[in-house]
Each structure stands twice: as C-alpha cells, then as structure tokens.
Amino acid sequence: MPGDSVDTISVSQLTYRHNPDTEPSLIDVDLLLPRGSRTIVVGANGAGKSTLLQILAGKRLVSTPGAHIFVKDRDVFRDSPPGVTFLGTEWAMNPVVRGDIVVSAFLDSVGGYRHKERRDKLLDILDVDLDWHMHNISDGERRRVQLCFGLMVDWDVLLLDEVTVDLDVLVRDDLLNFLKADSEARGATILCKLHATHIFDGLNNFPTHVAHMRLGTFVTQPAAWPVTSDSALVSQFAPGTTLYNVALQWLKEDRDNRQELEKNGRKARGARRDQV
Ligand SMILES: Nc1ncnc2c1ncn2[C@@H]1O[C@H](COP(=O)(O)OP(=O)(O)OP(=O)(O)O)[C@@H](O)[C@H]1O
C-alpha cells in the first residue's frame, strides 16, 4: 500500500477504459511489486499489459475514483516519481528520432556525456556506433540506440514494453545480463511485458517474479520465480518448469477461455458496451 517503502510499485482498484463507450482494458487491478524485483507479465494479445505499463509510466491519466497508483511511494499523476524509465515501441516512430542526426550528438543532446561510463558500457553491449546517422539505420539498430538512450541514466524503475523483441539473440542476452546485474546491484525494479512471439532462450534466469494477465485482470499475481517446492506456483507447475512452458500453458488457458466466452456469445473486448 502507499507509504510502504518495501514495495516500489503499489496499485489498487485500478479500472481503466481507453474510451468511455468501450469495455475496460483494466478491471480492478491490484498489484504490489517489491523493490529490486524483476517481473515478467505473460498474457495473450489485448490482456492489458501495455496499458498497465503506460499507466505506471504516467502516460495515461486514470480518473477512476478510489484508484491508487503509486510508484516509489509517490502518486504517479499528482507527484510524479523521479527515476522511472519507460521504454515502449512508439519511440521509434517519432520523426525526431528518424531525422538526420548523428548518434553521438543525439545521445549528448539528452545528457549522455553526464553518464559516460554507463553510456559506453551500453554502446558496447548494444553494439551501437556513435557515428551512425539516425535516418540511415535499420529498425533494430534504432531500437538499440533507444535502449542506450533510455538505460544510460540510473533508473530505479524500468518499465519495458516489448522493446527487446527485435534485438538479435546475442545482443538481447548481453542486455538481459546487464539489466539483471544492474537491478541486483542497485535494488532497481523492472516490470516487463512478455510478448507472445518472444524468444524465451536466456529469459529463464532473468525474472524474480512472473505474473499472468487476462482480459484486464491478474489471473496469477506476481509469484516468485523459479518454481520451487514451496513457491506459490507449485500448484500449477512442477519445480524447475521453464518460463517457456509456463507461457505456453497460460496462453493456452487464455485461448480456451476466449473460445468459451465466444461460444457463450460474448463479443471480443474492445467492442462497444451496448454491443456486448
Ligand atoms: N489506444 C487505444 N485505444 C483504444 N483501445 C485500446 C488502445 N490501446 C489498447 N486498447 C485496448 O485495450 C485492451 C488492452 O490492450 P493492451 O495493448 O494493453 O494489451 P496487451 O496485453 O499489451 O496486448 P498485446 O500483447 O497484443 O500488445 C485491448 O482490448 C485493446 O484493444
């Protein structure tokens, strides 16, 4: 709850509609994430993962009475917390980052010279060339520049929305190791969305918690990872289960649930309320 410094992220009674006449994308969400945790959220398309990340980043205003959205003990909207980094896919679409600007100038324009050590480490991990021109690089290369840009500042909370999807496996592996070591060394908290098409190799050792969202709610709250004989997930999975198997089972349950709803005449989410 707000005021408890053990939890970096504390959410309660969060309901959110993108449009007033559609079904809510998040329904009465409660969430507590301890400081230093690294949580992967699994869920089918449209489960509400990105919407939740965007709200935690303060990018979507929530006006639902009673909703509490606190990051680092601060109200995300009224007293926005410092040290929160959100990395989402829309960044690469921004015309500014597609202009004729050299990477070194671009990174310096956002203070890269002040974080030279971390910047150089990230340039190395992400294999980014300071002489690249932003308008002349591939989407994957632009993504690597974005990661360098977003991660070079010391963040306390990192909200990752799919941005590792188009990295090659070597770069991605190095980056995950960097993020893991960074979060362990500084007690920084990471929440990331796992896309259904994600490559799972190398991800197994990354999270401290995994969670499952479906139709705007958590069907499994963040649970300690890996699965051990005394962990909450042992009722669903055998100790030592891989993240790949967990995701497969949860996504299959999501599909079964959707088919059941459709059989019973329920329209897909996003339909107007008066059509549901
Ligand atoms: N900008 C928007 N305007 C209206 N509805 C939206 C918008 N963004 C998302 N939604 C709706 O909110 C719901 C949750 O979407 P969200 O993008 O959060 O899901 P997700 O779990 O991240 O899905 P995916 O894995 O497919 O990216 C979906 O029904 C989606 O149609």
TrEMBL record:
GO MF term list: ATP binding; ATP hydrolysis activity
Pfam families found in the cross-reference section: ABC_tran
InterPro entries reported in the protein's UniProt record: AAA+_ATPase, ABC_transporter-like_ATP-bd, P-loop_NTPase
Domain named ABC transporter: residues: 9-240
Statement: the UniProt record of this protein carries the keyword GTP-binding: no
Sorted UniProt keywords: ATP-binding, Nucleotide-binding
The protein's name in its UniProt record: ABC transporter domain-containing protein
UniProt source species: Asterophora parasitica
